[in-house]
Amino acid sequence: MIPMKILHLIAFILVIVGGLNWLLVGAFGLDLVDYLLGTIPLVAKTVYILVGLSAVYLLLTHRRDCQHCQVDNRPDTAVTL
After folding, report:
1. For residue 81, what are the CA distances in angstroms to 26, 63, 69, 76?
2. d(Cα 2, Cα 50) in Å, to the nearest integer?
């Protein structure tokens, strides 16, 4: 079984790859995943699916894992709006 820290790191890296890929698509019309893996459609599709699943995983586990999002009841660290 994959330790949660490694799973989190893999998911984080895949989300960064996906975000950078979307930056390239939006700014330059270059889909880097398709460019690198377009000749192997099954692998390219797998990368897209893994990036999407990683985003869902991070969305569901972010609040628990992120030290900046932890709710602390101490008055000196409470977040106010």
Report:
1. 33, 18, 14, 14
2. 16
Residues 56-72 have pLDDT tens digits of: 998 888 777 776 666 65
Report the C-alpha gap between 65 and 60 in whole angstroms.
10
How many Å separate Cα 33 from the centre of its chain?
15
Nearest alpha-carbon partner for 71 in 80, 60, 79: 79
Contact predicate 51/1, CB 8 Å: no
The whole model's pTM is what? 0.69
Tokens read off for 39? 């000749």
